[in-house]
Predict the structure.
Amino acid sequence: MVKTVGLPAEIKDGERRVALDPSAVKMLSHSDIVSLVEKGAGIGSGFSDQDYRSVGAQIVDTAEETWSCDLVCKVKEPQQSEWVHFRKGLKLFAYLHLAAAPALTNALVDTGVEAYAFETLTWPKGHPLLAPMSEIAGRAAAIMGAFHLAEGSGTLLGGASGVPPARVVVIGMGVAGTMAARGARGMDAEVTGVDVDLERLYEVHEQKIVTSTLYSNHHNIGDAVANADLVITAALVTGAKAPVLITREQVQSMRPGSVIVDLAIDQGGSVETSKPTSLSHPTYVEAGVIHYCVTNVPGQYPRTSSRALSAAVIPRLLDLARDAKSDRLAGSLNVSQNRVVHPAVAASLQAGYETDIS
């Protein structure tokens, strides 16, 4: 039984979210679990230290004190400077994206951390701890894409009288892709939705989320990308590295000043020319195309993101604190007893880890 939960301040570039808001910490207090919150951890999301004290949290001066707890809950994957806090038996609950992070995986395995990932939890269905941030990332993708398209080719998504609207291609019509398409349509762009699921394509077209649909294959994607002003990728394979759906040659076929927003970058990216960027330096240009590959897109909307994430996480955090083998944590355990135990993560890393698929 977990008796203490640590909430360290996030240190990733531009990250202002916090994993638990005061209302969630209050739920821990009611369950007789002591919360240690690092001083200032919630400031970026609009939550003061006093807000946490008022619901029973202990405010501590250092990250080390929060990492000394039985269970640490945070938003983003531990940065390298935080690995010093890893120890055998520590429970960690966060977005980990280990398929694209072999060095972090090695550190977790070597130190014996019990690592649970938000993004691979699948109970009761779908990805309930990923969905809130996917929704926000998708909405943000349309905004960021429109902004950088203005910087690039100078194209307005909605066009104007006598001028056609911009052409937007969204690859992957899950939560993030659907929100991105809705946002682009809301700005009157012409939006093509791409997916392998024909039923899903029928749904988004019938609901007028997109103006057209396209079955996902190399040829179709190549044609769509070559004529696009803005491409947003949001492909997801649970726990695995993102599939590369757009090749370098296809990027080179795009018009100068076009924009790519790769929302799959946390899992390695879906574009061959993608590489991780940060909120302080969000873009780079390759082959004349602006690439936006920020690995923590929702972090720029910390108040909204923190409240949405906290509401989704706290029920499962309580389950983890009470019974780490609960069915309600299905799929979340990535590293346990010095080995990778999530089969998709292990397969993606191709590092010869022993897997446990029972």
The first strand starts at residue 4 and ends at 7. The chain has eleven helices and 15 strands. The longest helix spans residues 131-151.
